[in-house]
Input
Amino acid sequence: MGSPGGLTSGGAIHCEGLVPQPAGFALVAVLVFLLIVSAITSTFALTAWTRLKIASNETESQRLGLLAEGLTNVLAARLSGDGADLGLPLNFEPISCAVGDLAVVTRLQGHSGLIDLNAADHNLLAQGFASLGVDSEMSNRLAIAVEYSRSGASIFAAAAQEKIEVAGGFKHAPFESVAELQDFSGLRTIPLPDLYGTFTVNSRRGDLVIGRANPVLTNFAKVGTPSSAKTPEQAFTIEVSVSRRGSPIAGSAGYVFESRAGEHAGLQRIAAYPEIAADEAGAKRDAVGGCVEIFGASVTDMLATLH
Output
């Protein structure tokens, strides 16, 4: 007969139907649960942080872009005034200055240093295309096509239509924008900023002021007018890039301004310039005394207060 209470004769307790649990199983389960929760929450936290940084960078870029746009207007106003000869290079050479923690790169192009698509003759047009890396035969064909497209002159018709294809066809009217050149076969792979750095539709002159042309075009131009500080400008391209020193974030703005007479005399913004990358490192430093010489004392003082 067994002993009462399930005691054996040896005094040991025997529990039937009970399975002992592994030690620490509950702790492992809790740790696994915490790891899962941590993975989920860390993913959300990382996504939120990334979005915050992107939004912050975009906001800073927009702020700097608006500042750059304002500075293009300031420079246009200075070029419109009595002291229009600021002593700045007019061949789109970058000039940098710094005020506070802002680094500013300015480029100014007088359109007398560009080739007018509506006024230049065949030879000058061909030289412009050659400066873009187009071979001489194609450069001559393109020059003929440009003359035919702007005028519809019948003497150019056969050569132009046979050699050059134009998207949408020849318009037989003056060019309204340099960007129209990308409709011409042979020019579709040329970057738009390169075309704008060589040609214009705003100078209304058939010659080229050599000293205001970019260095590459200067090497190809066999005829031109010597540069002169008194050469009047019908239009300017003004491009400004602004960044904080030590930061990769930059804002830029570029526009074509044309001289207007009458009630609203002065330089008026007429077109946007193709966006180019901010190039603080490539700027010519110490070309002028500083931002005061470019934008004036009052604007420079205001820039010094920006944070």
In short: The first helix runs from residue 25 to 80.
